[in-house]
């Protein structure tokens, strides 16, 4: 991810040089030198990224690590600069339109001195790094070409399974066989298609009707007996485990829940060879009915043996012909017969290098789909990447082709996905929001950042970096997953920069290191504590807390806000949070703040309005929240205010009309007492799209106020809900004036859904 941070820093340096700092000679010279060093380093980054993949290139990896560290520090300094300047200008406008306030002048001078000192120190560090590029023989490589997409090509459907006909039938037969409770292990190298085979068997109609219950659990590493047992109980519809703390009690409940039940349990991606852990779970499952089956997928035969498998099912590589058919299904999509014939010979050689691995064939096939000419295909066949010595070499080599064929902006978006755990369901819109908050998206004249993010997502999907798509009623992708090998590859690329921690798991907490910048913290059980090491991670840019169970866990927000001042993204939802400390104002770099589902949170501090860089504020489901902060109009960069299901909020603060960048406003509340902004101010929010709820319409008395809201011009709206009040109007309240108000709320012509409530 070095390319991402270096590009962002260069862009910010250019911005600083154009502003007031350029008039101060000593700072100007240091900033110019900083920019010059970064340009020199950026020129050789492509070569460094490629070289670091080799097993013997630890020195280049260390060089990239040092470069990223100093780049992050410089970005923080520049971010502090631009934020303080922006804040000072706001204060200047409030004091007087013409005369600068004393505080503005003082703050600017103080900041300039502080910034100059920091830049001088950082320039020294960068000097050393820039000079070392020659020591490692790093050279400038040709710039990548942009992706060329066929206009008639849509996303490739990779759900169809090629080959394996005999394998599928054999596994289904084994599962339908009556007898004892069997453990069947599907064994094979990563990317060979183990999970796909298990999915096909799991969803087979005969299998579905044969078992009383079917349960799927993604295990991965470590083999956490408590988590797996609770996952099984949840699939069975048993929620009593939420009140249990001891493992023995949970396992007893599991034993009782499956007693005399014929079940199919799939344990996907098992790694542990410790028989004792599996033994605890197996003993609880032994109360099931005869004919129950446990289907395990693993890369290691020793794991299958440790689990006492009764049937070992090794998955072999696809045959040469099956490999060719799968490759053609993707690489030749939409091509003419003439093109297919011309590319056949080279294509067979490329497919052969994928060693019969389905994931490799899909990935390389997705890459070749974008290559038009014989010369481009020959270039892939002759590439030195096939010769790289890397871990998981059978699969990482094909993935590297697709990765290095990506433009730098797509590489950094893919690498960021290493922050998600294996088998995690990724919400497409949330992912695009995270990319945006990390500064990975840049809008154009005709397409805003999120539209660009949508393009990036589609490009990565076409390349097979995402899979298992869930779609809406019109065929648009809303969710996806990453293959576990693709996830391993993303982790390999980021090398500790993106981490997944699990509360209560000593191995994941001990694996935490100070170089981590992006962390997802999994809290699977109620009443768990947020690990203390999180509060020590002062360099974190992303902290996503994913709470399972009922969302009850303990977190010290005061300590969090005091220590983690570099955060760009914070997601923190817990039923235990009833107060947000004013120290949240310390997080000046914050772009995305998600406090959704904190249903006991009653108030947001005014300090939230000092987060001038904020793009996304999510307070969905904060049922007891009484009001929005009064100075919310300061957040003029805000794109999304997700405030749905905040029924205790009775008005929108004055200043809302200044939020002209807003794309999402879940609810707009019209109050009766004149405390808040009028409905007419919605007219300024011309970019609104998606869903909008307007509450309290019975408080609108003048049709001109409704007309000024200009709903008809908000062409991005898809769903509009007009709520008259908490209770239905009776006939006496339906005046002619009110009917005119409703008529004035003319929705856009392309609206898909209109709801009028309590009329």
Architecture overview:
The relative contact order is 0.06. This protein is 41% helix and 13% strand. The strands form five sheets. An eight-stranded parallel beta sheet has the order 9-10-12-14-15-16-17-18. A five-stranded parallel beta sheet has the order 2-3-4-1-5. A four-stranded parallel beta sheet has the order 19-20-21-22, with no helix packed on it. The longest helix is centred in the first third of the chain and has 38 residues, at 58-95. The protein starts with a helix and ends with a strand. α1 runs parallel beside α4. The model is unreliable at 96-100 and 143-160 (pLDDT under 50). It has 759 residues and is of the alpha/beta class.
Which structural traits does this protein have?
759 residues; alpha/beta; eight-stranded parallel sheet; 41% helix; globular
Q: What's the helix and strand layout?
A:
Blueprint: H1 2-18, H2 25-43, H3 45-51, H4 58-95, H5 102-135, H6 165-176, E1 182-187, H7 194-202, H8 205-210, E2 213-220, H9 225-235, H10 247-258, E3 263-270, H11 275-285, E4 293-298, H12 301-306, E5 311-314, H13 320-331, H14 337-352, H15 358-369, H16 374-381, H17 393-405, H18 408-416, E6 426-427, H19 428-437, H20 449-462, E7 467-471, E8 477-481, H21 484-494, E9 498-502, H22 506-510, E10 518-523, E11 528-529, E12 542-547, E13 553-554, H23 557-563, E14 569-571, E15 592-594, E16 616-618, E17 640-642, E18 664-665, E19 667-669, E20 689-695, H24 703-708, E21 716-723, H25 736-744, E22 753-757
Helix pairs in contact: 1-2, 1-4, 2-5, 4-5, 6-7, 9-10, 10-11, 13-14, 13-15, 14-16, 15-17, 19-20
């Amino acid at each position: 991810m070095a390319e991402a941070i270096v590009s962002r820093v260069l862009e910010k340096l250019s911005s600083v040089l154009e502003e007031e700092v350029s008039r101060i000679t000593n700072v100007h010279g240091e900033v110019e030198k900083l920019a010059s060093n970064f340009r020199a380093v950026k020129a050789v980054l492509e070569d460094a990224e490629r070289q670091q993949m080799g097993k013997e290139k630890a020195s280049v990896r260390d060089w990239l690590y040092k470069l990223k560290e100093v780049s992050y520090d410089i970005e923080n300094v520049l971010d502090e600069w631009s934020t303080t300047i922006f804040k000072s200008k706001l204060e200047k406008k409030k004091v007087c339109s013409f005369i600068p306030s004393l505080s503005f002048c003082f703050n600017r001078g103080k900041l300039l001195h502080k910034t100059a000192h920091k830049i001088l120190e950082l320039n020294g560090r960068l000097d050393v790094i820039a000079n070392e590029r020659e020591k490692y023989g790093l050279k400038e490589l040709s710039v990548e070409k942009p992706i060329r997409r066929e206009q008639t090509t849509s996303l490739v459907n990779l759900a169809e399974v090629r080959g394996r006909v005999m394998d599928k039938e054999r596994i289904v037969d084994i599962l339908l066989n009556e007898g004892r409770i069997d453990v069947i292990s599907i064994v094979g190298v990563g990317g060979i298609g183990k999970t796909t085979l298990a999915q096909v068997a799991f969803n087979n109609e005969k299998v579905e009707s044969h078992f009383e219950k079917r349960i799927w659990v993604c295990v991965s590493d470590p083999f956490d007996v408590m988590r797996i047992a609770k996952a099984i109980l949840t699939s069975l519809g048993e929620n009593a485990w939420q009140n249990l703390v001891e493992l023995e009690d949970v396992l007893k409940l599991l034993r009782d829940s499956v007693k005399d039940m014929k079940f199919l349990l799939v344990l996907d991606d098992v790694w542990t060879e410790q028989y004792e852990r599996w033994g605890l779970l197996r003993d609880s499952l032994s109360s099931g009915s005869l004919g129950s089956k446990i289907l395990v997928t693993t890369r290691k035969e020793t794991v299958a043996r440790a689990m006492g498998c009764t049937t070992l099912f090794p998955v072999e590589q696809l045959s040469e012909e099956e490999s060719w058919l799968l490759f053609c299904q993707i690489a030749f999509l939409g091509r003419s017969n003439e093109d297919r014939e011309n590319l056949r010979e080279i294509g067979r050689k490329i497919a052969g290098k994928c060693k019969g691995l389905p994931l490799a064939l899909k990935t390389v096939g997705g890459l070749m789909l974008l290559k038009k000419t014989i010369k481009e295909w020959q270039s892939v066949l002759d590439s030195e990447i096939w010769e790289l010595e890397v871990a998981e070499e059978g699969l990482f080599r094909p993935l590297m082709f697709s990765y290095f064929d990506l433009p730098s902006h797509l590489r950094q978006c893919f690498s960021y996905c290493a922050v998600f755990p294996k088998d995690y369901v990724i919400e497409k819109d949330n992912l695009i929001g995270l990319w945006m908050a990390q500064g990975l998206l840049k809008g154009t004249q005709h397409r805003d950042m999120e539209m660009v993010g949508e393009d990036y997502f589609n490009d990565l999907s076409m390349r097979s970096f995402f899979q298992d798509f869930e779609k809406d009623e019109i065929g648009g992708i809303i969710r996806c997953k990453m293959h576990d090998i693709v996830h391993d590859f993303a982790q390999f690329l980021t090398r500790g920069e993106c981490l997944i921690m699990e509360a209560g798991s000593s191995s994941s907490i001990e694996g935490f290191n100070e170089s981590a910048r992006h962390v997802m913290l999994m809290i699977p059980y109620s009443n768990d504590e947020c690990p203390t090491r999180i509060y020590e991670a002062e360099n974190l840019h992303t902290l996503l807390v994913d709470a399972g169970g009922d969302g009850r866990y303990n977190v010290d927000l005061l300590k969090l806000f005091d220590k983690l001042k570099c955060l760009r993204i914070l997601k923190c939802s817990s039923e235990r949070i009833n107060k947000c400390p004013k120290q949240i104002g310390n997080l000046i770099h914050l772009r995305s703040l998600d406090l959704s589902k904190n249903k006991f949170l009653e108030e947001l501090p005014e300090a939230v309005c000092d987060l001038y860089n904020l793009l996304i504020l999510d307070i969905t489901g904060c049922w007891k929240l009484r009001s929005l902060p009064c100075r919310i109009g300061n957040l003029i960069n805000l794109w999304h205010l997700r405030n749905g299901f905040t029924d205790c909020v009775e008005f929108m603060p004055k200043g809302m009309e200044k939020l002209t960048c807003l794309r999402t406003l879940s609810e707009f509340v019209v109050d009766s007492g004149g405390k808040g902004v009028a409905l007419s101010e919605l007219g300024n929010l011309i970019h609104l799209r998606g869903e909008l709820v307007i509450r309290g319409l019975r408080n609108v008395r003048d049709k001109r106020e409704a007309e000024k809201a200009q709903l008809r011009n908000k062409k991005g709206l898809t769903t509009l809900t007009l709520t008259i009040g908490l209770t239905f109007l009776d006939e006496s309240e339906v005046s002619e004036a009110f009917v005119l108000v409703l008529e004035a709320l003319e929705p856009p012509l392309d609206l898909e859904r209109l709801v009028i409530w309590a009329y």
